[in-house]
């Protein structure tokens, strides 16, 4: 090890210790994560200024920082399947009435898919407004490596699937393989398997009360157990965010970001419009959007900094049940479905923008109404099963682009700005899930109006 490398590693360790000390001041998790993000950005900027983009020392330092950053991401990936499985299983088991499952699922998924379709139209609008195009984007060494990885890890598995094959891939045939994430669409298969298992538990309760009660108690214990595991991982979020932001900023090429700045601005304008759409839907249904956003703000900030819809599920459920007056069964459904189906940002806005940018290079008019209708339909359908951890947007784009007869090269060309946009996309995804839960609960007449309209402070953000 060289002296500069040792200094960088020691400085990184000191920053982790400082963040740990600050975390003992009784701060909320969202505040700790925000501080971790700020420290990571400042440290990354310092490394960028000192060493520059291509310095060997910087690259080697980042490889050590990745132990914390990528380690945290892998822990998030570890909890996704158990978390989604137990959340859906517990939600169905708590219904005590299998007929309610259909209504809740239909309304929740309906809202998620409807808002995803709107997000696709917004994507067409902002891309056209800014005149974005894939023409002129240069593929460098980093982008070439990314494209190679995409083609080997993703494209061969999902790009050639037809719509019927995609739907068929959702149906679980080996739940153990799906729990292990063996297939690109494993997460939605786990949702379906857990729902069937929950309905079976309700049937057992009806046929044999004593044994059914035992199964329901076991499900409750399993949920508490998994949630404890999730809490342990969530406590590591500030440190993971610090490491990830250090890597992003230190390895960023300012020229690339400036060159692709139009895409960043257009993306965030699209995200802002979609938050406005959520607010409008809530307002039309008699829910005060300002009060709603004030109550869910800790969840949105956590999703923004962690970049994981799945890791946000516990806070998502708590916000709905403790601040928005949504029953736990509906909250668990919307939080889990929202991390897998109809992600407005990752599966709606992003792949649509890429498609509209690439279309002119293939001699296609992106403003053709028939082409837009086809694009919106494919985006909405393919939004099912997009994993709620970093990489979901790439997965969605790799389904949409080939389905529209477009090349996937652009996915790799945007690698330098991907983290900047992914934070906003994740926040929108999670807000869409909470909006779906609130609307479903409202339509079914199960919302606790007193709790929803209360302005009392909740301990949610401190957990």
TrEMBL record:
SUPFAM superfamilies xref list: Proton glutamate symport protein (SSF118215)
Molecular function terms, GO-annotated: L-cystine transmembrane transporter activity; symporter activity
Any one GO cellular component localisation term in the record: plasma membrane
Keyword Transmembrane helix: yes
Domain of life: Bacteria
Tagged with keyword Ubl conjugation: no
Cell compartment(s), UniProt: Membrane
Broad class of where this protein is predominantly found: membrane
Transmembrane annotation, as ranges: 6-22, 34-51, 71-92, 104-130, 186-205, 260-284, 370-389, 395-415
InterPro entries hit by this protein: Na-dicarboxylate_symporter, Na:dicarbo_symporter_sf
UniProt keyword list: Amino-acid transport, Membrane, Transmembrane, Transmembrane helix, Transport
Membrane-related topology note: Multi-pass membrane protein
Family of this protein: Belongs to the dicarboxylate/amino acid:cation symporter (DAACS) (TC 2.A.23) family.
Protein name according to UniProt: L-cystine transporter
Upper lineage: Bacteria, Pseudomonadati, Pseudomonadota, Gammaproteobacteria, Enterobacterales
């Amino acid at each position: 090890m060289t002296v500069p490398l040792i200094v960088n590693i020691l400085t990184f360790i000191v920053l982790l210790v400082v963040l740990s000390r600050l975390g003992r001041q009784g701060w909320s998790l969202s505040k700790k994560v925000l501080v971790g993000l700020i420290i990571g950005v400042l440290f990354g900027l310092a490394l960028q200024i000192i060493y520059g983009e291509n310095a060997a020392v910087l690259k080697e330092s980042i490889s050590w920082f990745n132990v914390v950053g990528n380690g945290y991401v892998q822990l998030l990936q570890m909890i996704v399947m158990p978390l989604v499985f137990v959340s859906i299983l517990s939600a169905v088991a708590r219904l005590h009435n299998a007929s309610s499952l259909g209504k809740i699922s239909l309304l929740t998924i309906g809202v998620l898919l409807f808002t995803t379709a709107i997000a696709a139209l917004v994507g067409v609008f902002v891309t056209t407004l800014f005149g974005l195009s894939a023409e002129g984007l240069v593929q460098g060494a980093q982008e070439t490596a990314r494209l190679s990885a995409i083609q080997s890890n993703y494209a061969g598995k999902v790009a050639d699937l037809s719509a019927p094959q995609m739907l068929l891939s959702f149906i679980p045939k080996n739940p153990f393989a799906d729990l292990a994430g063996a297939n690109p669409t494993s997460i939605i298969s786990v949702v379906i398997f857990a729902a069937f298992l929950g309905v079976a538990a309700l049937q057992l309760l009806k046929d044999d009360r004593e044994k059914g009660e035992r199964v329901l108690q076991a499900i409750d214990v399993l949920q508490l157990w998994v949630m404890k595991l999730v809490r342990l991982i969530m406590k590591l979020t500030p440190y993971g965010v610090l490491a990830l932001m250090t890597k992003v900023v230190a390895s960023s090429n300012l020229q690339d970001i400036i060159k692709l700045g139009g895409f960043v601005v257009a993306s965030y304008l699209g995200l802002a419009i979609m938050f406005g759409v959520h607010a409008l839907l809530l307002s039309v249904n008699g829910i005060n959007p300002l009060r709603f956003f004030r109550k869910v703000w800790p969840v949105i900030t956590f999703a923004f900094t962690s970049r994981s819809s799945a890791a946000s599920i516990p806070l998502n459920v708590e916000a709905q049940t403790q601040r928005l007056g949504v029953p736990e069964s509906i909250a668990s459904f919307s939080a889990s479905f929202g991390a897998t189906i109809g992600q407005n940002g990752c599966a709606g806005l992003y792949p649509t923008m890429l498609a509209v940018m690439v279309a002119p290079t293939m001699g296609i008019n992106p403003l053709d109404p028939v082409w837009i209708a086809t694009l919106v339909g494919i985006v909405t359908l393919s939004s099912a099963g997009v994993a709620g951890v970093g990489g979901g947007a790439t997965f969605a784009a790799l389904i949409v682009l080939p389905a529209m007869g477009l090349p996937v090269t652009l996915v790799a060309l945007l690698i330098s700005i991907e983290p900047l946009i992914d934070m906003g996309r994740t926040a929108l995804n999670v807000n869409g899930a909470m909006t779906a839960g609130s609307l479903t609960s409202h339509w079914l007449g199960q919302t606790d109006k007193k709790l929803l309209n209360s302005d009392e402070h909740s301990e949610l953000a401190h957990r």
